[in-house]
Protein 1
Amino acid sequence: MGNFTGPDTDHWPVVEARWYKKITNKSRVVHRVVIHTMEAPETANTAENVAKYFQGLPKNRQASAHLCIDNNSIVQCVLDNHVAYAAPGANSDGIQLELAGYAAQGAADWSDNYSTALLENAANAAAQYCLKYDLPRKHLTNTELEKGHEGIIGHDQATAVFKLGSHTDPGKHFPWDHFIKRVEFYYAERKKQLGLS
Ligand SMILES: [Zn+2]
């Protein structure tokens, strides 16, 4: 598992980040999808704006992600085979998804119209990566992450398990149960569309 074995994802518009590690000599093995919040306001252009932000960062602020996602669009900033600089400890074998909004959001914020649309886009993208890299559609516990299991985690879990950095996104009210259900939905839909059983 984790190798590139499944169908490719959609091809989203690309705004190339300035800082990431290029891997060109092999197919990167991916074990986990990592969920982040951008700590940026919920607007229709947040994915585009944060992609531009990643493009303009100075040398002393090297950060990036594979996808920036908002309520109406997805922008790819780092191609899948390259390593984005998003979650120390979980970068080299991770696909990094940045979601519009804040780690401090409460349950009500996560279920408003904007976040509901955002979570659909993010779940759809995460499902595509689970299919591409043959990953379980599962929110790992910290213990499972520590043991090297494959699945979906938050940046906060990489912080806790690898003891690197201090980021707590996507926050303690991120609706994991709802999110994983939607990932399962899109995973099944895509398999059906592709004629896979
Ligand atoms: Zn993060």
Protein 2
Amino acid sequence: MLGDIAPFRIAGNLYFVGTHAKSCHVLATSRGLIMIDSGGIDTVDAILESLDTLGFSPKDLKIVLLTHGHPDHAGGAKRLREISGAEVFLAEEDLKYVGEGPSGFVPDRFLQDGDEVALGDTVVTCLFTPGHTEGSFSFFFDLVENGMTYRAGMFGGSGVNQLKKSYMNRPDRRVSYLMRGAFFKTLDRLEEEHVDVTLGNHTWQNNQDEKMKKLFVSPENPFIDPTEWRKYLAREREALWKIIREETKSAFVNYAHRGASETRPENTMTAFYEGVALGANGIETDVQMTRDGVPVLFHDDALLRVTGEPGSIGDYTLAELRKFTVKKDGMTDRIPTLEELLAALSWRDLTFAIELKGEGAEEAVADLVYRYGVDCKCVVTSFVLDRLRRIRAIAPDLRTGWLKKDFTDEDIEAMQAAGVDELCPRAENVTPERVEEWHALGFNVRPWAVTDDALMRAAVDAGADGMTVNFPDRLAAYLGER
Ligand SMILES: [Zn+2]
């Protein structure tokens, strides 16, 4: 036997023909075979032998559905197509994974969300579920076993290792950070599906070894378990959160405060881009609502100091505010919207600290944060604890931070009760002992009002997790020195 698993029938017309490391399934329809994932180039021979063992011929293979373009699941498709003449289906978004190199190929059809791929008596519903890759698809179909109909589901893009920072930032990968947000949205969507038979890209994802042990001895089919799907999705969700929590714990966040506001007009795109150019790995900004309900980025209550105009943000519509100019040392820019900032920079390796400055911005902020997929790399802050309570009521999984001059025991209790994650004191109130104490209580510590280099150094040395500075270049240099 070439493979390490003898092929077998899972349920209904569904068979397993893959290996321990690379799952490959076939559906035996009344008009030939639909294969789900092709395995790698190195497992084609084992798959062909498994088909033969089950009494199928390669010529029976009509359709190969690929969950995503990674080589361990799509690498065998080209050769299988040559042997069988089957049509290969993959999402266009994953072409970059299969289109080049000696085993590269172009699929015969691009999968579209909601496609129903039919062959003979079998229909496979295809859902676009990006995250693991840009074009991951999940497949659903009915299996008839002992007169009962069961729904089978293959989450085509599970596994979160490629959503680690170290992987995403590799120059040969360049995976957008938006994929983390996409992965969470995919999990939300898949939770809506009812699934009785959970399949995996890899055998360990659906505990296949354990089920195989029971398959021929127990009266019940161990592959039929309507509780497994949601448990599986919950495990995937927790696995990505674990990565994100560990990364945010270990990485010091150097927030460009209102952008690089020491040298550029504050809270403008010019200042945000300059902050990134100077080595910041975070952007801090302030949100207020315009009169016509658009969240824009502006710090002061009054427009006067930086624009020279009368009144405040809420007195004007966005169109009116667009005519104003934010000034700094002869440089000018306009007031940006929160959406402009996220559209420009959400895909980068940046943490966003978004301060709720005015009233009533909570819903608009949460909406944009999710829409641009930065929910897992942002912290929503405010001096007003009630605003944090409101944001948590709307979006309980968003991280929040309370800005305060200093923190009493009562403040800490209030924060814990409200579920606030980050404690943001003035820099002069940060000492190593207090940081240790706050960390022990589970809070991130991120000082503000870091007005000079001495305060900056002291806060870094005290063990803070990040800070807002107007001069991210000097903070980056100091972090580099240490
Ligand atoms: Zn993969």
Protein 3
Amino acid sequence: MTGYGGKILEDRSREIERKRRKWDEHAERYDEWYERFHGAVEHYVDWELLKVHLPKDRNAKILDAAGGTGRITLPLAKMGYSVTLCDISPGMLNVAKEKMRREGVSDKVEISECNVYKLRFADESFDFVLCWDGKTEAAKELIRVTKKGEKISMFLINKYGAAISKFHEDPDSALALVKSKSSYVYNEEEKYKAVSVEEARELFEKEGVKVIEIYAVCGMLDLLSIPKEIQESRSWDEKFFKQVTEMLLRLSKEPSVKGLSRHLVLYGERT
Ligand SMILES: C[S@@+](CC[C@H](N)C(=O)[O-])C[C@H]1O[C@@H](n2cnc3c(N)ncnc32)[C@H](O)[C@@H]1O
């Protein structure tokens, strides 16, 4: 029994080590994605959807779990919130640290190297918790550190959207997903547990979270058939940017297209 438990722990720590190395390697270039049209649109839509759910009290304590280079931590800190940014990758956290220093908000941000599956925070430590990295299995742990009556936001891999976008490269896995024979999606060697909109709702409600909204994000831009040169461009027409983001914000709430999105962002309140 001890040997078996030990083996699982060893596999888990090997997996974490592999992920840490991968993200350390990506760290210096991670933010570049958000300087291009495609990334800037995604960031804008993410932020517009998040804004309306943030705590009214600017003294609130927020956890940005698996927060990487602080893409979301930075604007939160600029708004005055006290943010704890945690991540397993020291490389990503170093980029974040330097950004917070440059922007003069280091005093608002606590940076912590830690694993979202085993957070080092006490129960009900935060007034708002977000984890935007598709870590479905970490839901329980993230809910644990959210105060009762406060909100949690999780980014999840959407089962049907993922199956549709993966079909051309791996039809067997895509079919297994839509037939519910598998729940897993592989992305750049990482394994993610995918959920449908209904499964996401059930998962959180089972853990005592009242689901407020589930938005469709990411992958929706592909549906608009915007030419690749525009998507990858570092400068763009502002009117077009506004039209695209307005379109995506409207689609993100539209039940009839939610299944097509590669990712979902769930907002709920811990009861
Ligand atoms: C795609 S980035 C997302 C960063 C940020 N949430 C954002 O939206 O810009 C994924 C991040 O998750 C982190 N990560 C992966 N597995 C993790 C784990 N088990 N615990 C904490 N962070 C993890 C990676 O190091 C990386 O910084």
Protein 4
Amino acid sequence: MQRIFTEGLPRESLERCYNVPMTGMYIHLPFCAKKCHYCDFVISTSKTTDSKRSFLEAFEKEAKHHAPGLKNRIFETLYLGGGTPSVLNENEITRVFEILRHFFKFKKNAEITLEVNPGDVTPAKARLYRELGANRISLGAQSFNDATLKRINRAHDAKATLDSFRILKSAGFKNINLDLILSLPLETLSEVERSLKVLLSLKPQHVSLYELTVEEKTVFGRLNRQGKLKLPPEEAQLEMLTLARGTLKKNGFEHYELLNYAKPGFRSRHNLLYWANQEYLGLGPGAFSYLEGRRFRHSSSVEEYLKKSAKEDWSAFEEETLTFEKKETESFLLALRLTEGVPVKNFKKWIQKHKSEIYLLEEKGLLEIRVSRIKLTSQGQLFSETVFSELSG
Ligand code: SF4
């Protein structure tokens, strides 16, 4: 999931992303304590030491396979996601970093993010994360309401999030993101208001604000098909999003991307790299890589990953080579996610080709066209999926 922009450095600009080739790295560590009802990620809830040992062996083989082709690259960002990296014990997470540092080179000031779930962190683990080089934490709060957390099958309560945040802060982390999901079953506007209040009291540097998406192959997908999923009405969902956006902005957060808010100087370099359509290596069972115009992944499940690695079979399970046109379209749409919008000078030909759709979206009040930039209006941010689908044809 994927940025020269560190704490204290000047605000990021798209031009800078385009002028400096960067490579990021995403590591998919697939273990979770239990499966959340909305989750359709590739995960394993196995708790045995053996399954983690087998995974680490496969992971080492995969890293070894990719290392020769990437020996000249220096990675700008490293993002360890999942799954839940914090489910790994101290020896296991240390081994992950040993493998990475053995096979790859990272920039001295690389942004290294570790996803952590509330309740997994101890003071010793938090100190170890710092020693291993992590300088950014993403903590999956999701909600600060215990009844909601239970309803979505999270493995923690709100107190665990507060405790984990304090432990991480005491260990010296100065760049912590909190994830929050809106529009959860039976959620109300006042509940979102309370969650935001608690979130702000923690003073995180970054907030990722998601809206619940009901995926087919999840518990919520099944309940939805059965007509048993009680989501807040659409109007209330819009109110929740508007309230959350307004509250974060009022409290000094820059809304720099559709779902992301940062205090000045704390934008996620890894994600900026994705939105600038730069290259990245993905390692782990569900991770996509995007290298030399080719997007691919080796497997779609933990079992398949283990089987393929035992045979040293690193063929692609899924792959796509991007044509110039497709890459341009993707780059435009990714850049449009950023609040500052798309720099016109970088996309002159593409814009010429799609001018009728662009003008139509402007007429509908979803796009704002300026001499040097095209950006989503606030209405366009609320209905971004419509904009993306109109422009991706
Ligand atoms: S913790 Fe994250 S990856 Fe694990 S089940 Fe929940 S949503 Fe999925």
